[in-house]
Design brief:
The chain has about 220 residues and is α+β, with helices and mostly antiparallel strands. The chain contains nine helices and seven strands. It has two domains: about 1-105, no CATH class; about 120-219, no CATH class.
């Protein structure tokens, strides 16, 4: 696993092996939160513990929470199941647990920074783990200290997920979004990115502007 010039983790071993491991349903259970921890929660705690995010510090923070042996233990189980070599299994485990969590969170932060450039007077706050887990909410937007919008950020591929399991997950997400709107009395937007850029950026900006105009009218 290596870090590229965009500060994202990349796979550093054979891509064919990576693809095979990703498709191997026999090892999927090894990446459940019961095995590797609640990575989103751990990253959330890391995010709130520092002003500067670095791959090295993220790795160290994860190890401080989950222990130094957890990744090796998972890697060894993958090796037993797949019969692949030790280095490949360990690199894959690190990427799945540390790399993908880091990459996804940095993508979110970059997109929020895009929105901050368009709306410098809006305060975007990273949602806590409870909001993410139970209300499908990554970020919240405040104007003059008042919450006016919840946001969930997903890669564009989320739109095309279409297996029975994925469709059920998407249905559950919609129920969580509705619960957020009902309980907090504000809209909730699901926005997408592709190649680390906001999808339909102008449409998102226009929708937020409409909300802000309505807030001004209410005040």
């Amino acid at each position: 696993m290596k870090v590229n010039n965009q500060n994202r983790f990349e796979v550093s071993f054979d891509k064919t092996k990576f693809s095979l491991l990703n498709k191997d349903k026999k090892i999927a259970w090894l990446f459940r939160s019961s095995e590797v921890g609640k990575c989103a929660k751990i990253f959330d705690d890391y995010y709130n513990s520092t002003e500067t995010l670095t791959p090295k510090d993220w790795f160290l923070f994860y190890k401080s929470v989950m222990g130094v042996d957890i990744l090796k233990e998972v890697s060894n189980k993958i090796m037993e199941i797949t019969k692949l070599d030790e280095d490949t299994c360990f690199e894959y485990t690190k990427f799945r647990v540390l790399g993908q969590t880091w990459n996804g969170m940095l993508n979110e932060i970059d997109l929020i920074n895009e929105l901050k450039q368009e709306f410098p007077n809006i305060e975007f706050r990273k949602a806590n783990y409870n909001l993410d887990e139970n209300y499908f909410t990554d970020w919240e937007a405040y104007s003059y200290g008042k919450l006016f919008l919840g946001l969930q950020i997903k890669p564009i591929t989320y739109q095309y997920m279409n297996t029975p399991y994925q469709n059920q997950a998407k249905l559950n997400h919609e129920l969580q979004r509705q619960k957020y709107k009902d309980e907090f009395k504000v809209p909730h937007f699901l926005i997408y990115y592709e190649n680390n850029k906001l999808q339909d950026k102008q449409k998102v900006i226009d929708r937020i502007n409409t909300l802000l105009i309505n807030l001004i009218e209410v005040r």
